[in-house]
């Protein structure tokens, strides 16, 4: 049985092809998905998605969303997705530092909410990079 | 026709050397111009269109400048047309996402129907403050596009003031930004600039702002003002309630709350929602078996929490895309009008120019002939 993964963002289709296995970071922790998985629906946290093609692992930074698994068909709906190989390491690291600084500076409920979101996104991108190396 | 005849006749005249006629012409030019102009403006035909009072040289430069303007407007029209195509492509690219999203939302909603859901984005609070997200364009030269949406925003602001409610504006696009900067009495929460093509990132920036405003309870309602793209020749500025979202995945109207936008706007929205429900109906038949065995990994509320920001984003992105499409369409029609106008102006100017030129040549020949006659 083959497993098909489809990663969709509002802009484009990021991934639409066959995979062997994926590891998805959901709101309740990471789950691994192999062929013939039970049909589930899950929220996807801001975090990384690891994809196995034969023996090769790929990483992708996901910016939060939703996934539906069933019938050997995985549909991941996210706001934004970036392949680990497409992320500029320096830029990602810088963004992370800026986000950390912003969170320290943040005052009031609203700013903290915003800064937290930005920090989590930046962290996911850096993590996606680190997984590769 | 007659003009060319005259020149032929003049050149065939053996008694005249070219140099003499040329010197005549140049010496006469400055003196003759005013008299010719007045005579040409007196002719009934030229005055019936628009009286054009100027000399030959000025006419020529005017024709040139009109020609240049026409080239520019034509180029802008073509560029806008090409961009419309790109904007359409962007919408098409985003379609798989939005379709799947609506499908999933529908599925989950079906299963959650019985439960009492309490997600932060769907919370309906008594409204004290309203945030207005105003989507304008980045450039002018697109007819009344920017004006219309700003007027709509002004009207809505006046309405909110009338209801005694607080408001704040989130301005998207350069034109709106400069408008609100010039009016400091309108509280603006944030200025955002649009790019050439709206992307998810941009929508995300707006969504983040709106999300934090709403969740931190600074505002209790978020409305999106944008121009809905109807067709290439028609677009309407509309008001669309963004937050609170109804868990059904529709743009909610707050039942029993008097601060909703005017009725007609909601009716316009329902036509949009009508389109959405049609899509959903198609989906329902496809996925009826799928939802039956679907399990939730987390609490349904948590899943809804993950889905609603996605929905919020896609709604904003859609609005941005529609706004861009309407802007481009408005520019296209404005520019095609300008081009038509330039063509007509050019035609009129060259008619006047030719008439004057002909009159001048006739006058010169008459003088030369009279002079030659006097010598004999």
Automatic annotation (TrEMBL), chain A:
Principal place of residence: membrane
GO CC list: chloroplast thylakoid membrane; proton-transporting ATP synthase complex
Coiled-coil segments on the chain, per record: 96-132
Gene Ontology MF term list: ATP binding; proton-transporting ATP synthase activity, rotational mechanism
Keywords: ATP synthesis, CF(1), Chloroplast, Coiled coil, Hydrogen ion transport, Ion transport, Membrane, Plastid, Thylakoid, Transport
Domain ATP synthase epsilon subunit C-terminal: start-end pairs: 86-129
Assembly, per entry: F-type ATPases have 2 components, CF(1) - the catalytic core - and CF(0) - the membrane proton channel. CF(1) has five subunits: alpha(3), beta(3), gamma(1), delta(1), epsilon(1). CF(0) has three main subunits: a, b and c.
HAMAP family xrefs: ATP_synth_epsil_bac (MF_00530)
Function noted in UniProt: Produces ATP from ADP in the presence of a proton gradient across the membrane.
Name used for this protein in its record: ATP synthase epsilon chain, chloroplastic
Organism expressing this protein natively: Manihot carthagenensis
Classification lineage: Eukaryota, Viridiplantae, Streptophyta, Embryophyta, Tracheophyta
Recorded name of the encoding gene: atpE
TrEMBL record, chain B:
UniProt keyword terms in alphabetical order: ATP synthesis, CF(1), Chloroplast, Disulfide bond, Hydrogen ion transport, Ion transport, Membrane, Plastid, Thylakoid, Transit peptide, Transport
Family of the protein in this entry: Belongs to the ATPase gamma chain family.
Coiled-coil portions: none
Quaternary organization: F-type ATPases have 2 components, CF(1) - the catalytic core - and CF(0) - the membrane proton channel. CF(1) has five subunits: alpha(3), beta(3), gamma(1), delta(1), epsilon(1). CF(0) has four main subunits: a, b, b' and c.
Protein name: F-ATPase gamma subunit
Main location: plastid
Molecular-function GO terms, alphabetical: enzyme regulator activity; proton-transporting ATP synthase activity, rotational mechanism
């Amino acid at each position: 049985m083959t497993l098909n993964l489809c990663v969709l963002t509002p802009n484009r289709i990021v991934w639409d092809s066959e995979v062997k296995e994926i590891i998805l970071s959901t709101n309740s922790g990471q789950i691994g998905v192999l062929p013939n998985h039970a049909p589930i629906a899950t929220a996807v946290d801001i975090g990384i998605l690891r994809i196995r093609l034969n023996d090769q692992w790929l990483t992708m930074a996901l910016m939060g969303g939703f996934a539906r698994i069933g019938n050997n068909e995985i549909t991941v709906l996210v706001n934004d997705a970036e392949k680990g190989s497409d992320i500029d390491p320096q830029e990602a690291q810088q963004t992370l530092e800026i986000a950390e600084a912003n969170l320290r500076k943040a005052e009031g409920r609203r700013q903290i909410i915003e800064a937290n979101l930005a920090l989590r996104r930046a962290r996911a991108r850096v993590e996606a990079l680190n997984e590769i190396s | 026709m007659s003009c060319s005849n005259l020149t032929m006749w003049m050149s065939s005249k053996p008694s005249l050397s070219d140099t003499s006629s040329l010197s005549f012409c140049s010496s006469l030019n400055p003196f003759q111009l005013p008299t010719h102009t007045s005579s040409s403006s007196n002719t009934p035909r030229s005055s019936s269109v628009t009286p054009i009072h100027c000399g030959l040289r000025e006419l020529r430069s005017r024709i040139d400048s009109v020609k240049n303007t026409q080239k520019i407007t034509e180029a802008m029209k073509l560029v806008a047309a090409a961009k419309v195509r790109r904007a359409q492509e962007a919408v098409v690219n985003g379609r798989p996402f939005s379709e799947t999203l609506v499908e999933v939302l529908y599925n989950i909603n079906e299963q959650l129907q019985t439960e009492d859901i309490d997600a932060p984005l769907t919370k309906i609070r008594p409204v004290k403050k309203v945030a207005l997200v105003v989507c304008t364009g980045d450039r002018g030269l697109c007819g009344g596009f920017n004006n219309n949406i700003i007027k709509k925003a002004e009207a809505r602001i006046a309405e909110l003031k009338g209801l005694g409610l607080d408001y704040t504006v989130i301005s998207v696009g350069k034109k709106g930004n400069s408008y609100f900067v010039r009016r400091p009495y309108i509280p603006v929460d944030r200025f955002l600039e649009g790019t050439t093509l709206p992307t998810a990132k941009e929508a995300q920036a707006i969504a983040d702002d709106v999300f934090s405003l709403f969740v931190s309870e600074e505002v209790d309602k978020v409305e999106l003002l944008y121009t809905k793209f109807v067709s290439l020749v028609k677009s309407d500025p509309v008001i669309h309630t963004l937050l609170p979202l109804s868990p059904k995945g529709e743009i909610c109207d707050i039942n029993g709350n008097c601060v909703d936008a005017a009725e007609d706007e909601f009716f316009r929205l329902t036509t949009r929602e009508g389109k959405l429900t049609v899509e959903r109906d198609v989906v329902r038949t496809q996925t009826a078996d799928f939802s039956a065995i679907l399990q939730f990994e987390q609490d349904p509320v948590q899943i809804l929490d993950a889905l609603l920001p996605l929905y919020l984003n896609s709604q904003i992105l859609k609005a941005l895309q529609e706004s861009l499409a309407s802007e481009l369409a408005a520019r296209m029609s404005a520019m095609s009008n300008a081009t038509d106008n330039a063509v007509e102006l050019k035609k009129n100017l060259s008619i006047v120019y030719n008439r004057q030129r002909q009159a001048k040549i006739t006058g010169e020949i008459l003088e030369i002939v009279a002079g030659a006659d006097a010598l004999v």
